[in-house]
Prior knowledge:
Blueprint: H1 11-21, H2 31-43, E1 47-50, E2 56-60, E3 72-77, E4 99-102, E5 105-108, H3 115-129, E6 138-143, H4 151-154, E7 165-168, E8 176-181, E9 183-192, E10 195-197, E11 202-210, H5 228-243, E12 246-252, E13 263-270, H6 274-291, E14 300-305, E15 312-314, H7 316-328, E16 332-336, E17 344-355, E18 359-368, H8 371-386, E19 391-394, H9 408-421, E20 426-430, H10 436-442, E21 447-450, E22 455-456, E23 464-466, H11 467-482
Parallel strand pairs: 3-6, 3-7, 7-21, 8-20
Antiparallel strand pairs: 1-2, 2-6, 4-5, 5-23, 9-18, 9-19, 10-15, 11-13, 11-14, 12-13, 16-17, 17-18, 22-23
Helix pairs in contact: 1-3, 5-6, 5-7, 9-11
Amino acid sequence: MNDFLHNLEPKGVWHYFSEILSIPRPSKKEEKIVAYLDAFGKKHQLETLRDAIGNVLIRKAATKGFENKQIIVLQSHIDMVCEKNSDITHDFENDPIEAQVVDGWLKAKGTTLGADDGIGVAAQLALLAATDIEHGPIECLFTVDEETGLTGAFELDKNLLKGRILLNLDSEDEGELFIGCAGGKGTTAKLFFQKEKAPANHLSYHVKVSGLKGGHSGDDIHRGLGNANKILNRLLWMATKDFDMRLNHMEGGNLHNAIAREARAICCIPANLQNAFEQAVESLASQLKNEFKLIEPALHIECLPSSTTVEEIVDAKAQKNLLNSLYACPHGVLAMSQSIPGFVETSTNLASIRQKDDHWFIATSQRSSVASALTDATQMVAAAFLLAGAEVEHGDGYPGWEPNPNSVIREITEKAYFRLFGKQPDVKAIHAGLECGLIGDKYPGMDMISFGPTIKGAHSPDERLQLDTVSKFWELTLEVLRNGPEN
């Protein structure tokens, strides 16, 4: 299906990325890719280990003349975000990803591509399989379940790694070297409701928000992208206030680390208010499209009469609590860094709303490079839902990665980049969570850096990988390995 990738350079990387595209690997369901890695290690007669949580480690000895180099760990996660457009039929647990080239970018057909972080995995496999690349001893670490909880890094065996230098291959902007990241924590709310009979003489409507870009709740939070949950809530809040709208069902978003692209609701209004209601929705939809016209030109809002009559609605108090708390819940950038120009310090994402039999389950995620600010953000979100009478819980969270001003691998990588490309890389911290924070917590003193090719639209069906940056990513990896420090 993706045979055309074998014609691209560097051939080894694209060969393995093509194979990875054919292997289903949703978060928490990585059995098939783990089996593939085990078979790969055996085929190439490389020491292959697996820890209790399922992380895979493959070791390769130094090439001749590089035996005195320090061990370097290369690390990527093997799971992928599974998102698709609503008009696409795709089974992420069984179907391969179908890729295509569009204007110099590789992307999937209506689904996430999985270059995050499949391209890092492919580079590691190409390195392990190669017989003509100079390097010291290497350990390739493949972690599980990064996208839905950083579980692999959380549960990483403290005795698995021998190396104390780590190249994380999970960054998404070529030319940028990352030396720190934000910590994060999830906040969830459970808001209960009761069902009651729908009033007579009402008309039922399906309301849907779609066409948004979505994106990574860390990397893309500063862009001002539309959040489908927030947009839909504005419509429903207006309809409740002005037209006595009653809610039957509301849901939106999907993953905690993705900005919600779609949301929908089923509701009803008094029949005598039909014309005024439809005009008001059209007017508000026009205002919303104007607000987002530059960043979300494909925003689509529809409010269509239903062919079936709503028989039940949620009770009025619960409806009021839900819509008010969603309106009050912050979303987006909360603070910019005072020490790093242009760097987001603290943010929050209203990620998903799921309606169950007797409650709504609302998932949010907060990020910050300042521990106290992260706590403040989680409490701010919690307060919005506690005021509505919801049950609120916080996840365990994960630590940030504090930049090391004396990093040896940072200096080596900066010099390698300049030698190769004749310009200085941009050295910075990232607002997204990287596994480096957790790995550094497990292995104190680990000297780390993160880099990768350019990926845009991660965690959404618009995910795309810039083809010409893959070669630069590969060349930089090899140059760093050639120049690694000696024992």
